[in-house]
From TrEMBL:
This is Sugar ABC transporter substrate-binding protein. It comes from Jeotgalibaca ciconiae. Residues 1-22 form the signal peptide. The keyword Acetylation does not apply. InterPro entries: Bact_solute-bd_prot1, SBP. Keywords: Cell membrane, Lipoprotein, Membrane, Palmitate, Signal.
Length: 432
């Protein structure tokens, strides 16, 4: 997540591992307890850089203040995060706590994380109330391996000025796919035979069409089997392709016309009326004085569904301080810590109770008012597709994206694209 907000700079904690002060001996269960007055240091790894510090440091400082017997060695990896972790696990030098997103299934499938079931039960954590279906993304083979920390499901950004100019009512919490399509057409503007403003962002990125597949009762993967070639999915891809071919969605040529551009950039410049993506743009967009926007839940076919974004905290099996590590994970994902995360809006909390609280929904973002209740509403609408439930996420989404691009470029029909995705997807699944 890459949201930014004008906060005071927080000095980055050293990434050099702190020396344990008379650390206790490891127990048979792999945990390590410190004697009275002693301090246990746990190492916490995540991706990101300086702009991400406000996501973690205020919470880490609050945790250490409440738990003086535990210190957190916080390490950020600015690039090649997965490769770094894989190397550390291979060398038996893995951090105690790691941040994971879609990559979590891959690590969990190799038995690198502890099963959190007993910890969750002993702590009386209400998984359903805290995270709804989001927890499914961080469960492998029936065992939860991470607790959701950062959230922010896919939402709809819309340019209020462009809606007003076109005479379109703003999106509602139950906006239909027909209303979205009609708005995309009306928001598209052509001057001298050239499209200068597109109605929607679109493109081949899997969340941009996968969310509508779930909304139409379809799936990409179910029970570790690719099921993408279905009548329900054909209906969605045909609609998605028509939207592009009719000229209502930003084209590849449009984005490539400006160096280092993309849907986010074009939306910020007022050249796209609607953008479908995650929470992370809110901070940056609210800093643009000329961009008058708001957010809404994703439009729907037959069911109100959205695509999940976010990350979780997992504990390494190699850790000999698992009890201390869980105390940290439990705090970071608690309502108290999630409220701290929500105060800065540098990123979205994952905890539904926090997202639905008045403290979160009623605050301004860079002195601008937004419908922040949309984030909680959307989180409750998350339904996890089976593509998130195994180590094959990266390969499948890469292949599916390629075939949808071929379709949008006119080299495949929707039927042919689905057939190719089914065939290639089955071959990928044979590896797992």
């Amino acid at each position: 997540m890459k949201l930014g907000r004008k906060l005071k700079a927080i000095t980055m904690l050293t990434t050099t591992a702190l020396t344990l002060i008379a650390c206790g001996q490891g127990n048979e269960d792999g945990s390590s307890e410190a004697a009275d007055g002693e301090v246990t240091t746990i190492q916490f790894y995540t991706w990101g850089g300086e702009s991400d510090l406000p996501i973690y440091e205020p919470r880490i400082q609050a945790f250490e203040a409440a738990n003086p017997d535990i210190k957190v060695d916080f390490v950020q990896v600015p690039s090649d995060y997965d490769t770094k972790l894989q190397t550390m696990f291979a060398g038996n030098e893995a951090p105690d706590v790691v941040q994971v997103a879609e990559n979590g299934q891959n690590f969990a499938s190799k038995g690198l994380f502890i099963d959190l079931t007993e910890y969750i039960e002993e702590s009386s954590i209400d998984v359903e109330d805290n995270w709804a279906d989001t927890m499914t993304q961080y469960t492998y083979d029936g065992q939860p391996f991470g607790l959701p920390d950062r959230g922010g499901p896919e939402i709809l950004y819309y340019n209020k000025d462009l809606f007003d100019e076109a005479g379109i009512e703003y999106p509602t919490v139950d906006w239909s796919i027909e209303e979205y399509t009609d708005a995309a057409e009306k928001l598209t503007k052509i001057e001298n035979g050239e499209t200068v403003q597109y109605g929607a962002s679109g493109m081949d990125w899997v969340p941009n069409w996968g969310v509508f597949i779930k909304s139409n009762g379809g799936s990409l993967v179910e029970n570790n089997e690719v099921v993408i070639n279905s009548p329900e999915n054909l209906e969605v891809l045909t609609w998605f392709n028509d939207l592009y071919q009719d000229g209502y969605v930003g084209t590849y040529e449009f984005y490539e016309s400006v160096a280092q551009s993309g849907a986010d950039s074009m939306f910020s410049q007022g050249k796209i009326g609607m953008l479908t993506t995650g929470f992370w743009n809110i901070g940056n967009f609210t800093q643009l004085d000329d961009l008058n926007f708001d957010i809404a839940p994703m439009p729907s076919f037959s069911e109100q569904v959205t695509w999940p974004f976010g990350s979780a905290l997992a504990i390494s099996k190699q850790s000999d301080k698992q009890d201390a590590a869980f105390r940290f994970v439990e705090y970071m994902t608690s309502e108290e810590a999630q409220q701290i995360l929500g105060e800065g809006l540098v990123d979205s909390p994952a905890n539904i109770k926090v997202l639905n609280s008045e403290e979160f929904t009623n605050r301004q973002v860079n002195e601008k008012d937004l419908n922040l209740d949309v984030v909680g509403i959307s989180t409750e609408r998350v339904i996890i597709d089976g593509i998130f439930e195994g180590p094959y996420y990266g390969e499948l989404t890469g292949e599916f994206s390629n075939q949808v691009k071929e379709m949008l470029l006119g080299r495949l029909t929707p039927e042919e694209a689905l057939e190719k995705m089914q065939e290639s997807g089955e071959k990928i699944m044979e590896q797992y």
